[in-house]
Amino acid sequence: MITKDEMLKELKKELPRFYNNIRDFQELLNVEAKHLAALDNLIDDLVNQIYIDTATWGLSRWEKIFGIRTDESKPLDQRRAVIKSKVRGAGVTTKALVKEVAESWYNGEIEVIEQPEKVGIKFNSNFGIPSNLADVQKALRKIIPAHLIIEYLFKYLLIKDIHEVKTLSEMESITLDKFAGGEIIG
After folding, report:
1. What's 39's DSSP letter?
2. Mapping DSSP to helix (H, G, I), strand (E, B) and coil, where does residue 90 land?
3. Going by C-beta distance under 8 Å and a sequence separation of 6 or more, which residues neighbour residue 61?
4. Is the same domain home to 85 and 99?
5. Is residue 183 part of a domain?
6. For residues 80 and 59, is the Cβ–Cβ distance under 8 A?
7. Domain check: are 144 and 120 in the same one?
8. By residue range, what is the domain housing residue 69?
9. How far apart are alpha carbons 178 and 158 in whole angstroms?
10. DSSP 10-31
11. Which InterPro entries match (predicted)?
């Protein structure tokens, strides 16, 4: 984002020095710098909307293009993940595509396990169930053939991961949802 002062400095660099002593011209330059800085920033913002990773208010346009219901209550990164999964999900479904779509939703590594009657999606990087699991499930259901069952496998903390490994103070900071069968009590 460029400021009015930065734009004014750039404009002055392009002009002969004798304009510096003309008060009316300096006032004109100040007004022009303000408007040009605003215009420059608007152009930058518009260019940001062209790319999924930098779009903000333009995400609703992307969602409309891909037939996604706009939900402005969701964080921008989750909305971007929905769009990216739609972009990546076009074409033949392969193990690599399933992995790529799932990982675009999940901030971590996914393992895809193929079996004749089902597909296993194993979340390897983080403990517990991802907060946006419903979105991951929706995206995968759209690309994985309907006759295949999708099984989701989660990573949980086990007693061997904590017993004589973690201190009591470290244990106090671990939420129950990181353990199998645990819930967040709140």
Report:
1. H
2. coil
3. 49, 55
4. no
5. no
6. yes
7. yes
8. 59-91
9. 9
10. HHHHTS-GGGGG-HHHHHHHHH
11. Phage_Mu_Gp48
Amino acid at 22: I
3-class SS of residue 155: strand
pTM of the full structure: 0.47
Give pLDDT tens digits along the chain (186 positions): 999 999 999 999 988 888 888 999 999 999 999 999 999 999 999 999 999 999 999 999 999 988 889 999 999 999 998 888 777 765 678 888 889 888 887 777 899 999 989 999 999 888 888 888 888 898 899 888 888 999 999 888 777 777 777 777 887 887 777 776 655 443
How big is the chain by its Cα radius of gyration, in Å?
Answer: 26
CB-based contacts of 57: which residues, under 8 Å, 6+ apart? Answer: 49
DSSP string, 157-176: B-HHHHTTTS-HHHHHTS-G
State how many domains the chain has. Answer: 3
